[in-house]
Automatic annotation (TrEMBL):
Record family assignment: Belongs to the bacterial solute-binding protein 1 family.
Keywords: Signal, Transport
Protein's name according to its UniProt entry: Multiple sugar-binding protein
InterPro entries linked to this entry: Bact_solute-bd_prot1, SBP
Pfam families noted in UniProt: SBP_bac_1 (PF01547)
TM spans (from-to): none
Compositionally biased tracts (Polar residues): 42-52
């Protein structure tokens, strides 16, 4: 299955948002200019105003499935509670497992599909449409999309030109978070280039702290590492070609990116627990161990998106002072900007399901979760002031300002079998590479074999 090609992405994706972020993230814990009271074209009279009309649904029962856990799930349930309050419907959150498309398949086979599912990959949306599971968005949801979303975010939720997905949640996946005290003690500076990053890592190591936490037990953060290096080094055109398997994973550009990654992954002393420890470290732990232990944590830096803040919140560290962030450094001529997201898709077409997705497409729903932290919306009418700290406000501003200029997560564009399945495909192949970063050619051969199988030899 080929992933959907998005024609709206241009070379400006790499330069425009990267430049915004580079300036935006050079900030202190608070900034007087951050308290914008409205987003672009906010239709409400303020952050708490209602902008969307919902039907009365007394007695209606809905199930919503997503893979979200912990604080992310708890915060989303508060959004669902507001929908219940406004409509009289009863909504049950159904915890799903990765890959969600397989989870949904078993539910559908058993005759019990959820009404709405949050799908984290455009490839999964296409698969759900091709299987006849997904239902098109109704006129109310389409109206909210048109009023609240840049065309690029609308397009990535379409299949065959028809809208099926509402991107309720977005992610900026080109960020590296660091323990401010460790950097201060080491005399390390926020890096702007890959070489600067290696220099900062050396300074941190020499100060007695391991530079990086890598969440190797979860394959998806490894794909994100690769995508940032590859986008910056090989450029957006090659990125799109590899995302669609129009070039092979044995291409020299992939060799270059893996060789670059090995400059960090290949240094045992640069990874908390070494390669073996990294492969046993799950994503939440990779974050929390960077921000616990004062100025002697298990690691100084952790790479991942803006959603890291949810996990930082589980420690005593404060975002903007103890926990700071810088854009993923430029490996090539420009710093990379990779976005991800989760789209609400209707599986059981009903008045209630359409109303819920319409609500999720409105600024009302996203504003509730924005205030709770650890969340980013591509909805341009969410007030910037809804985000709870200066770091999050700057990231949100940069995302909205980018408009249509972004590259979507490559593995999320791939068929699920290659880019979205634990223990298989790209996730497993990069885990194997993390285990043995000297075997670049072997990693490329495995990646190409698995990609060819998943895409139907569509290279």
């Amino acid at each position: 299955m080929h992933s959907k090609s998005s024609t709206f992405r241009t070379h400006r994706a790499v330069t425009t948002l990267a430049a915004l972020l580079a300036g935006a993230l050079a900030l202190s814990a608070c900034s007087g200019s951050d308290n914008d009271k409205k987003g672009n074209g906010d239709r409400s009279s303020g952050a708490t105003g209602s902008t969307v009309t919902l039907p009365k649904l007394n007695g209606a029962r809905l199930e919503v499935a997503a893979v979200w856990t912990g604080g992310e799930q708890a915060n989303f349930k508060k959004v669902l509670a507001e929908f219940e309050k406004r409509t009289g419907a009863h909504v049950t959150f159904v915890p799903a497992q990765d890959p969600i498309i397989n989870f949904l398949g078993s539910k559908i086979a058993g005759g019990q599909p959820p009404d709405v599912a949050l799908l984290p990959q455009p490839g999964a949306i296409k698969q759900a449409v091709e299987k006849g599971w997904a239902k098109p968005l109704g006129p109310e949801a389409r109206k909210e999309l048109a009023e609240n979303y840049a065309q690029g975010w609308q397009d990535i939720g379409k299949v065959g030109g028809k809208p099926y997905g509402v991107y309720y949640k977005a992610a900026n996946k080109s960020l590296i978070w660091y323990n401010a005290k460790v950097f201060e003690n080491a005399g390390a500076q926020e890096p702007k280039t890959w070489q600067n990053l290696l220099t900062a890592s050396r300074a941190v190591y020499d100060s007695g702290v391991t530079p990086f936490s890598v969440a190797g037990a979860d394959g998806w953060p490894l794909t994100d590492w690769f995508e940032n290096v590859y986008l910056s080094q090989a450029g957006p055109e090659k990125y799109d070609q590899l995302a669609q398997h129009k070039i092979k994973w044995t291409d020299p550009s992939v060799k270059q990116a893996l060789t670059t990654l090995a400059q960090i992954w290949g240094k045992k002393d640069y990874l908390a627990g070494g390669q073996t420890g990294a492969l046993q470290t799950e994503f939440p732990q990779s974050v929390t161990q960077t921000f616990t232990g004062g100025d002697q944590p298990k690691s100084a830096m952790v790479y991942e998106g803006d959603f890291v803040q949810v996990n930082i919140g589980e420690t005593k560290a404060k975002v903007g002072t103890d926990a700071k962030v810088f854009p993923f450094p430029a490996v090539g001529s420009s710093a990379p900007v990779v976005s991800g997201g989760d789209a609400a898709v209707i599986l059981k077409d009903s008045k209630a399901a359409q109303a819920l997705v319409t609500f999720l497409a409105s600024p009302d729903a996203a504003t509730i979760q924005a205030k709770l932290g650890g969340y980013l919306s591509p909805n341009k009418n969410v007030p910037i002031s809804a985000y709870p700290n200066a770091v999050q406000q700057k990231i949100a501003k940069a995302l909205i300002a980018s408009g249509d200029d972004f590259r979507f997560d490559m593995s999320d564009q791939a068929p699920q079998a290659f880019g979205g399945t634990p223990g298989k495909g790209e996730w497993k192949d990069l885990q194997d590479f993390l285990k043995n970063p000297t075997d670049v050619a072997g990693a490329q051969a495995k990646l190409e074999k698995d990609a060819a199988a998943a895409y139907g030899n569509g290279g």
